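4.2 Preliminary Data

To establish feasibility before requesting continued support, the project team ran the inverse folding procedure on a target of 145 residues. The structure was first converted into the token representation described in Section 3, and no sequence information of any kind was made available to the design step. The complete token record follows.
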């Protein structure tokens, strides 16, 4: 009886552990989107960069100026803050953690850095909540500082 109980307990711990880890496929898909975002940003294409975000009025972006709702407002804010390629600089992400919150939601934490020649370099940390919508991973909440 003790052996059976031990096997059942190990089984449930294993299942719970698996449930908290994104599949390698999901992790690679999200990391690939972030790599594409870096590429778009570094090409000076904010519209392309925004393809990683949920195109919805419910998108949440939290930055130094507070909370912004909506994809369009987030895009407008980026274009105001980074009006040209010189202001945009070269973006690099450093992903620190990727954690599955549910079957269709992931928390990703990392650092960002903008290397700029004509302006002071910028950098900080971010936490992104990704959701699988219509079989595509999209950022539904971005907290960058």
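Position-by-position output of the design step:
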């Amino acid at each position: 009886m003790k052996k059976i109980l031990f096997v059942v307990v190990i089984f449930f711990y294993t299942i719970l552990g698996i449930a908290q880890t994104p599949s390698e496929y999901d992790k690679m898909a999200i990391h690939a989107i972030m790599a594409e975002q870096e590429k778009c940003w570094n090409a000076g294409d904010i519209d392309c960069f925004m393809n990683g975000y949920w195109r919805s009025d419910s998108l949440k972006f939290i930055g130094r100026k507070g909370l912004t709702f909506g994809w369009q407002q987030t895009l407008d804010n980026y274009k105001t803050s980074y009006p040209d390629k010189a202001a945009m600089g070269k973006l690099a992400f450093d992903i620190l953690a990727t954690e599955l919150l549910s079957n269709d939601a992931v928390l990703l934490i990392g650092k960002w850095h903008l290397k700029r020649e004509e302006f002071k370099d910028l950098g900080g940390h971010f936490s992104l909540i990704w959701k699988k919508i219509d079989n595509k991973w999209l950022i539904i909440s971005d907290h960058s500082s």
